[in-house]
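User: Please predict the structure of the protein below. I'd like the answer in structure-token form so I can feed it into my own downstream comparison script.

Assistant: Understood. Taking the following sequence of 118 residues as input:
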Amino acid sequence: MANHQVSDRRAGIRCSCTLSAVCEPVPAADHFSGTVINISENGIGLLLDRPVAAGNHLWVVMRGAEDVLLGKMMIRVIRVTAQPDGQWMHGCICAKEMSDEEKQTLQARNMSDSGIAW
């Protein structure tokens, strides 16, 4: 049987990184931590200690070295893969269209240098 490789489905170039992330499901619920392990112009690879079902939206706030706020984005989970260490890898794309509820959630968010108001 031939060994077939699956090609990367992302159109943009993927850059490896290790960014701390705070995630919150949409609609709003308790937030939880994760790690962005790669990023491209179209999406991110997000490592979490729990699975988030494909199709769900998350707010992701990313921080770099010395807790510097790098930005936030709404993403949609495309695929979820269990990892050998018990964590879950999430392939996510940037959400381009938002529902009215998601737009209201965005307006309620307040980011500053001192932190995020959840």
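That's the full token string. The CA atoms of residues 78 and 110 lie 27 Å apart.
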